[in-house]
Amino acid sequence: MFKVTQRAATQILTSAQQNNLTGLALRLAPQRNPDGSIEYNKMGFDQINAGDVHLICEGIDIVFEPIYKELLNGAIMDFVEIEPGQFSFIFLNPNDPNYLPPTEN
Question: Which domain of life is it from (predicted)?
């Protein structure tokens, strides 16, 4: 199903603690664009609601509505340094037509 790397989990926990949101789940709400690509700009801390898909990944509660299950199936959320000093969450998702599997260095 959906996975979170240890680096992403550490950042999620840090963000929750810094914002006094410890104990809340991280809610994801991906959106498919007209070109088929997937955006992940709708995420934040929230309560777990009845009917949510609820996963625990690396000690993090992840929730999303069942309608997003197909978009997130097989995806991995990571936290990486994009450029020196610039960190960001990324999603490696085989359901996105722009997805390129990571290559071994």
Answer: Bacteria
Q: What is the pLDDT, as a whole number, of residue 104?
A: 66
Residue that the structure tokens 């978009």 belong to: 71
CA distances from 19 to 45, 84, 89 (A): 10, 25, 18
User: Which domains are assigned to the chain?
Assistant: 3-92 (2.60.300.12)
C-alpha 53: how far from its chain's center? Answer: 13
Q: Which residues of the chain have pLDDT under 50?
A: none
Q: What is the dihedral of CA 39, 29, 78, 93, to 10 degrees?
A: -60
Contact (Cβ atoms closer than 8 angstroms) between residue 7 and residue 80: yes
Cβ atoms of 57 and 9 within 8 Å: the answer is yes
